[in-house]
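re: ur question from the group chat, yeah i did fold both. here u go
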Amino acid sequence: MKYYVYIFLFWLFFTACNNSNQQTDEKAIAIAGEKSLTENEYKRFNFFSESVKDSSAMARKLIENWAKDELFYQEAKQKLLPEDMDIEAEVERYRKELINYKYEVKLIENNLDTAVTKEEIQAYYDANRDNFILKDNIATVNYFKIPVASKAIDKFKKAIYSPNPKDKDQLKNLCLQYADNYFMNDSTWLLLEDIKKEIPQLRDVPEFNFYAGRYFEFTDSLAWYYLKIKQIKVKDALSPINYESANIKKIILNQRKMKLIRQYKEQVMEKAKSEGKFKVN
């Protein structure tokens, strides 16, 4: 984004310089120092309003904003040193960087292989285990939050504690009908701190009381809560691969992007050499 800002600032500077040198017979609707705002320039603001009153207020605001920017620019020209005003080389560098960036985006869009296999993710994970050390406690859980006034709480308890696998389907149906919130994905890791935010009573539970197989039940004035810890990984332990897989995929794709651009630049260089367009005197 910084590139667009720099180019936009350059455009403002260039426009202001050109406009100050142009001779025009157009009627000026506002004057700010040595600069006049013509009707045609004002029309380029392109604002819309539903009422005449709003339109008048908006017009005044736009003109005042234009005047502030113009007066600030005029003072900057007076106060800055000549060397500070010499920005052509700087602007050209930003322009070059912006054009190169846009071309890189096009090359990546048209040529990057975005398919990342499980084997590639596993290989990267195995080769960089030291980079995947947990900074926070994480867990896989079953979690249910049921309104305390719900008549289905007993049905939830029966399905939750039932050893019959078929009752899991009933539990899902109950969640869709009655639960304020629930989570039943055993393979997705969650930050333990985020789980505590869902169940306020967990904030008073010591960290050592969170372990695989442990379950909690709480009731307050709003809801009945149930939480079962399926798996847990503590801070400073090796992060599980399925917790890191999305991040690893981004890393692999970023490496491919850099390699693609580097190889393309080398090809451009070799072509220039073969055509005699590059030489060192």
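okk and heres the other one u asked abt
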Amino acid sequence: MTITGKYEVDKNFTTVYSNNRIYTIPRNARHNWGSIAVGELSATGHPITQEFYDNCVAECSREGTFELAD
């Protein structure tokens, strides 16, 4: 699956914001990615709101395309 969107990178993960979904791609295990959509609950039980998503996208200066393995 190919996704395109704004993204940020830290020491362990690449986080991509695309089509109201947040994709988390581990640096050293690219097949073990996960995603969560606006309206769903995070792993810690916090709701992902449209406002939260929009704020995250606004903070990103990079945009790219990523190929995710199933």
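fwiw on the second one: The chain has one domain: 2-67. The beta strands are 2-9, 13-18, 21-26, 34-37, 62-67. idk if thats what u expected
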